[in-house]
Amino acid sequence: MIYFSGHGFRLINRIGDGEAYLATSDSQPDGKNAISLDRELNPLLRRSNLSNLVVMLDCCHAGALLPENRELNRTLLEPSLSAFKEKQDYYLIAACRSEQVAWEDKKYSLFTAALLKGLSQKQADPETGEISADRLFDFVSRELRGKGQEPIRMGVGRSLILVKYGAQPQVKEVEPLLDEKGELRCPYQGLLAFTKKERPFFFGRKRVVDDIKSKLDRLNFVPLIGASGSGKSSVVLAGLIPWLEELGWQILEPIKPGFKPLTMLESLLLPYFRDDQQLLDQCINNQDREGLKPLLELFPREHKFLLVVDQFEELFTFALAEQRDRFIELITQVATIPDSPLAVIATMRADFIEPCLRYDGLRQIIQNNAEYLPDLRGLDLIEAITEPAKLQGYEVTKELLSKILEDIKQEPGFLPLLEFALTQLWQKRDEAKYRLTLDTYEAIGGIVGALNCQADKVYQYKDYEKDLPQQERTEVEKALREHLTFVTPKSGFYVKLF
């Protein structure tokens, strides 16, 4: 670990570029004897051969190690960022961006005081006793919010463990979560996406959420790309958004493009520009205006804002062509604005990448910024199956778990099928022994049979409104009916029709 607390300064060279230095005891105002971040420290780090490294810089202009201008082309940043881009398990935390001052506060600087507090045993993970670099950074970010500093980080690889306190075993009584009727909430979501409300039941995607958050620390636009039914919306709505809200982000209501994406965007931003509705309309709909840039200049600066565009592929299946082109032009513009108060997350189906590549700005963002959502496998998959039930005081038996893991090997795009089967299992759970069993799983037809049975039931329910006008469909039935409109079996795969 390298920790530096002291003075930093910047000098402007003859071609107008700024260069950052760490001041030594004998450094001079012209940079003599000082440590250059770009020409000395970074090359040394790049040539080092360490299994892991954490660098913490607490000084004015420490953020010069990170990009001041978070533009699309990463290759422009390689000379100053290669150590933290290319080396696995190298992690950087800087006290402030290069244009800010690391304000001092009594005995310690603000950053150092927050750092020491964040490394205390009180802030350790209650289950493991560990403090990781990511956990420390999140704590420091919360401590410095509203104090004129923005700590920044960069790293590739694992979330490094900085401190591990002695184990303090304790038995936790987990209170099951109840619905408004006082009954146990179902911990699985069937065919519906997990949202902030279901966050306690959302397991298995921590690493992906961590990666997206890390990218948002330095990028304004992150596409989340994955196969249909891979859980992209759940990752954002139940994993990322609650975390960002805890860190002080303001989350705009997530939107789907639909037929008129520009209308959706204008309606979303209207509450922030009620006194400038004409400007809002012109910036969004007038091709001759500067796009979102004038609007972003008026955004409050005390918070970071997030725009979520869910089901981005609707731009190519539903949206009017002229609205689609302008919408893509506007949101990709966010990626080119340094220190934009607004960031964008877009969930994209992998089979719609090709039409996205026709737009230069969008193509660059996908090439440089995208986070790809892999299949849920290994321990993450086991966690997603067992932990929601455990939270509600139930056990997924070993025999059931083994059978499920065996069955899903044969099913491409298994996640919706799995979640639906688990929902059916929960409804037929063994309430006497508090468990989900293999016998019940086989009775409902397994992974595929559970959905097929329910699909037949819903699809044949044609006269339901006429015969049972007072009976409401469940949320699962509504979602399944919608899927049956767009999905048809073909060669063992599920193909959406448009």
TrEMBL record:
Q: What InterPro entries would the database entry show? A: nSTAND1, P-loop_NTPase, Pept_C14_caspase
Novel STAND NTPase domain residues: 187-477
Top-level taxon in the UniProt lineage:
Bacteria
GO terms for biological process, alphabetical: proteolysis
Q: Tell me the ranges covered by the Peptidase C14 caspase domain, including all copies.
A: 1-150
| MF (Gene Ontology) | cysteine-type endopeptidase activity
Q: Which Pfam families match?
A: nSTAND1, Peptidase_C14
Name the record gives this protein: Diguanylate cyclase
Q: Which species expresses this protein natively?
A: Microcystis aeruginosa PCC 9808
Task: List the taxonomic lineage.
Answer: Bacteria, Bacillati, Cyanobacteriota, Cyanophyceae, Oscillatoriophycideae
